[in-house]
UniProtKB/TrEMBL annotation:
CDD domains: WHTH_GntR. SMART domains: HTH_GNTR, UTRA. Residues 3-71 form the HTH gntR-type domain. SUPFAM superfamilies: Chorismate lyase-like (SSF64288), Winged helix' DNA-binding domain (SSF46785). This is GntR family transcriptional regulator. It holds the Pfam family UTRA. Keywords: DNA-binding, Transcription, Transcription regulation.
Length: 239
């Protein structure tokens, strides 16, 4: 399905930001300029900027326009229902270490459909609470078919447009289905150190796997959240 005009404008701006044309805090083109460039109404441009704002990529500045967001945001693992955005549930985060290739744990390898001993690309982030303390330790595993086609996943820094949009732009693949499995266990030594909790400490573990249009795994994320920071609320129709 071809992208709507506002989606095309949003994707073009994502690409320009990702390519370094606009850096952190930079002012983005005005609504009038973009409307003239694309031959659309100002309302269409506003919808494009709203899309980027909800993705946590830009922020509106009173009297000046839209600028590239200074503090990147990320979400804990799971809960990526259709219509959700990176800004909803998003929080500041820190990237831990440098992305590397490793053999994932057995349950992650099974979720990704990997063969025994097959490596995947590992990216680790620490999502923070408002006071700067740790909220969730998230390890994302990308199969080689995705990592090889999207080389910036191997870079240390954040991907401003978000990994979902970046992977879609590079590969044409996008999430069509997600599976979340939530369990409870005790934190490992390394998890307790990153989450700043004393052992023994109970943690909730969300294993989130995103599948593309052909039901091939795009990524498997394991989010580990200490008991005091974990809350799950489900709202659903009855009757």
């Amino acid at each position: 399905m071809p992208l709507l005009k506002y989606e095309q404008i949003a994707d073009d701006l994502r690409t320009r930001i990702a390519n370094g044309e606009f850096g952190t805090g930079d002012l983005l083109p005005s609504g009038r300029d973009l409307a003239e460039q694309w031959g659309v109404s100002r309302a269409t441009v506003v919808k494009a900027y709203d899309t980027l704002r909800h993705d946590g990529l830009v922020v509106a500045r009173q009297g000046s326009g839209y600028v590239v967001m200074e503090t990147p945001v990320a979400r804990p693992a799971g809960g990526r229902r259709a219509g959700s955005t990176r800004l909803s549930g998003g929080a500041p985060y820190r990237r831990l270490g440098t992305p590397d290739r490793a053999v994932p744990p057995g349950h992650v390898a099974e979720a990704l459909g990997l063969t025994q001993g097959e490596e995947a690309l590992r990216r680790v982030r620490l999502v923070l609470l408002d006071d700067g303390s740790p909220q969730s330790l998230v390890t994302a595993w990308f199969p080689a078919s995705v990592a090889d086609a999207a080389p910036r996943l191997s870079a240390k820094g954040p991907i401003p447009e978000g990994t979902t949009h970046y992977v879609r732009r590079e590969t044409g693949r996008f999430p069509a289905e997600g599976v979340d499995i939530t369990t409870v266990r005790l934190a490992t030594d390394e998890e307790a150190r990153h989450l700043d909790v004393e052992r023994p400490a109970a943690v909730a573990v969300v294993l989130h796997t995103a599948f593309d249009q052909r039901h091939h795994a795009l990524v498997c994320e394991e989010g580990v959240t200490p008991a005091h920071a974990f809350e799950q609320i489900d709202s659903y129709p009855m009757g």
